[in-house]
């Protein structure tokens, strides 16, 4: 059972990696972001979207940890 769970986790990570790779390869057009007078350098659309995903994946657990500690 333990090997099956490990295999399922590896398979899930592999599927997610392939999906992200496909997304990155399909979204190579250059975009420029404008925000409150600040202009970001031109980069592929996938760079900004995957970057936002990674930032969210880091901030979410950190905020969750802070909320849990506050309620203890």
Q: Residue share in helices?
A: over 70%
Number of helices: 2
Number of strands: 4
**What is the rounded Rg?**
18 Å
Q: How many structural domains in the coordinates?
A: 1
Q: Which class of secondary structure composition applies to the elements?
A: mainly alpha
Q: Largest sheet at a glance?
A: 2 strands, antiparallel
Range of strand content: 5-15%
**Helix/strand order:** HEEEEH
Low-confidence stretches: none
Strand order of the largest sheet: 1-4
State the separation between the terminal residues, measured CA to CA.
34 Å
What does this structure look like?
With 72 residues, this protein is mainly alpha-helical. The chain has one domain. The protein contains two helices and four strands. The protein has helices spanning 2-26, 45-71; strands at residues 30-31, 34-35, 38-39, 43-44. A two-stranded antiparallel sheet has the order 1-4. The chain has a two-stranded antiparallel sheet with strand order 2-3. A hairpin with a 2-residue loop joins strand 2 (34-35) and strand 3 (38-39). Helix 1 crosses helix 2. The radius of gyration is 18 Å and the shape is flat. It starts with a helix and ends with a helix. The model has no long low-confidence stretch (mean pLDDT 92).
